[in-house]
Amino acid sequence: MEDQKMKDPVSMFVLFAQMFSITAKNLEKEFGQKGLDVLADSVKEFGVMRGKDIACRAASRGKQNTLENYLDNYDMERSELFGYTNEFKPDCVCQEFTKCIFAETWMEAGEEKYGRIYCNNIDPAIAYGYNKNLECQHEKIMYDDKRCTFCFKMK
Question: Which of 34, 105, 144, 151 qualifies as a cystine partner to 17, CB 3.0-4.6 A?
């Protein structure tokens, strides 16, 4: 089994999570909490950029950046490395993730501390970048609850 694991290509999601942890550890080592705060701000900036790109994708398809068009124009592929459901309600869209390669990678390495920086900041920032009135409530998180829940709602 271990030999096969070495032969198979590594998912870009795993590589991203590993790079993120290395960056976080080095920022913390060099600058302490201030370094981790800079990383959190960087995740937020990255999220807003992605949200703006999602809005542009929607616009290029003749769609407005409404709640209804958010997930249809999302920028990240959802491979078998993620397990989730979407529930569309009249005033919100709720997602529940039961599998997440990012969280799994960080947990396997004992680096939840760094994963939380990404997880707590990315989706609210993407939603804001997509539409300043789109709120993301992130109530449950994989590290504590073995699942993540998100509810997207317009203010």
Answer: 105
